Every structure is written in structure tokens, then in C-alpha cells.
Amino acid sequence: MSQSAARRALRAAAVLASTAIAATFVTVFTAAPSLAADPIKIGSVVSATGPASFLGDPEQKTLKLYVEALNKKGGLMGRPVELVLYDDGGDANKARTFATRLVEDDKVVAMVGGTTTGTTMAMIPVFEDAKIPFISLAGAIEIVEPVRAFVFKTPHTDKTACQKIFEDMKARGYTKVGMISGTDGFGKSMRAQCMKVIGDYGITVAADESYGPTDADMTPQLNKIKNTDGIQAVLNPGFGQGPAIVTRNYAQLGIKLPLYQSHGVASKSFIELAGPAAEGVRLPAPALLIADKLADSDPQKKVVMEYKKSYESATGQPVSTFGGYGYDGIQLLLGAIERAKSVDPQKIRDAIEQTKGHVGTTGLYTMSPKDHLGLGTESFRMLEIKGGDWVPTETK
């Protein structure tokens, strides 16, 4: 090799060496800040797409919105919060797979999610076995009854919804009603809970019908209810498109009896799907739906108005109670981590269980070892649809 060639080779080797050294330092100095501020990992599995997307999409948007806002303020305990979020599309098997991934691969310290009862129930064993707190956003009572050590939820239970509806029916003098329920997880659970407590209000079910998740016409079942003597009102436990179809068919058949829906349809999308037929429908729902109609003295007024403003400003969409469940879930969890001053899952779990008087969009939460929801019928507002909007039927 000539001297000039040798010098060129030496220069090339020096350049490579210096590049390698620089790359090493880049790796070290970019890694150092993340080690100094290791993120607090919170998991979430929601149904942002699929048949339950009207529930899961606002939940996903809400969780992202508030985690981003928190990080802009400096995070939690001086550390950023990382939201590890998966979309199960409403599939319980996918939900369980993602739950396992959150535990084994992502190493989350807690979980907020579970859009539907079906996906929630599929994930519960994973988080219970891992001893990681799980705050569900689904409705059925079996999520928290019997109480499981690491499982909590933010929406009212279907049992509480039944009680609120029957309180209203009793106050209006109704003693004989018809029921048409969805056969999905939520519909079946709520029907069962309603049947358990209805006798406490002196009311009997004179006609009991059901429909499947994919049914597009409920007129045969509604005709049977219509032709049953003595019925004074009708209740439809269900969620998704089913209750909107029931409501439209109800109007088409000219049934004039009061129609009650569940909190499972407490969103503007139900009114849009049902159209003019929704007029007069009654249902129990959180204060969020009537945020601007609340008295200034109402303890929830400030919280629901701030959430409504933040969500609608960020998304350009109206708030729904489902996004509110997500808001309550993330705020309950972040508050628990802050009180625990720890990211140890057991300490976070204990702090959630010790929640007292937390003001959320859904109600005022007070939990205990025997109550992993912390809401009663007083946190529900009885609403009626008038002029395409929600109107309270009672003064609180």
C-alpha cells in the first residue's frame, strides 16, 4: 500500500472511530433524562372502534386529553405519565390479550378502561392475578359485586339504574309495566337486576320481551307488550343501536305509554339515532348531560362544566356520559397515586379504596372495602328528552 493510500485509510478509520464515539454519547445522553424521569405507565383498553365505539371513542379521547394536560403541567410526582392504550374493537378475546400485554410487556402500574361489561369481565382475571388495580368504565353490577380486591368502576351499576327508574315509576303511580331487554351482556344483566328489585316498589312486570344485538325490527315484541292489558309504562334495558330501534318502532306502532331507557343510552347519539321518536323518553343519567342546567350550588357544577368545556374545545364534539366515565376513572387513579405518593400497585389500590367524597362527572364517590363503586341512586338525575335535548324531571 502506498503512503498516500495508507494515510487515507488511517483518516477513514479515525472518522469511523469518532462517529462511533459520538453515537455512543448520543445514546447515553438521550437515555439519561428518561432514566431520571422514568414514566409512570398507566394502561387502558377501550372499544374505540366496533359496535361499542360510541362508548369507547369518547373514553379514549378523554384519557388522552387529560394525560397530555397533566404532562404539560409537569406530570405526577415529578415524572411524566405514559398512557399505554389499546383498542379491542369490542372483542372480549382481544381485550384479554391486550390486558396480558399491559401486565407482562408494558409493566403498567394500574389500568383504566374496559368499555363494555363483556370486555371488562374478560380482563378482570388478568389484573386480579397480577394484583394491579383496574378501574372499569362499564356498567354491569357483576364487575364490583362480589367485591374483588383490585377491581373498581366509575359508572353507576345497572341495579342502581333500575332502582332510580322504579322510584320514578312509583312516584307517578305506575304498578304494572312491560319490559323489552337486549340480550347483550349489559341488557341481560340490567334485566336481571331490575327483576330482583322491582317488587320493592310494588310494581309487576306484565310482559317481558327481548331482542338480539343485531335485530333490526322489534315491532313483534312491542306489539305483544302493546296488546297486554293494564300496562302503564315500558322499560328498555339495553345499549347500542337496539334502544334507538325500539324507540323508533315504539312511535311507529303509536304506543302512547311512557318509555323508559337505561343510562346505557345517555348520549346525544341516542337522540340522533332515535330521531323525533325520542321525544318524551325518560332515563336516569349523570349530571354531565344537564351541566348548564345545574344550580350554581350543586357540588358537581364546576367539575362537569370544566370537563364539558375542555372536551368539546379539544374534540369539537359534544360530551357524553361515557367520556365522563373515563374522566372520573383517570382522575380517581391520578388522585390515588398522588395520595399514595407511590407507584406500587398495592398502595395505589389501597388509596383508591380509601376515596372519600371525590367529585366526579358521574357523582360523588366514596368507596370502602365493601363498595368499589361508591355511588348511590342520589347521584343519578332523572331526565326526559324534550325538543331534542335533556331536561331534568326533578329538582335536586
From TrEMBL:
Residues 39-388 form the Leucine-binding protein domain. The keyword Cytoplasm does not apply. Keywords: Amino-acid transport, Signal, Transport. One of its GO terms (biological process) is amino acid transport. The keyword Iron does not apply. InterPro entries: BCAA_transport (IPR051010), Leu-bd (IPR028081), Leu_Ile_Val-bd (IPR000709), Peripla_BP_I (IPR028082). CDD domains: PBP1_ABC_RPA1789-like (cd06333). Residues 1-22 form the signal peptide. It holds the Pfam family Peripla_BP_6. Belongs to the leucine-binding protein family. This is ABC transporter substrate-binding protein.
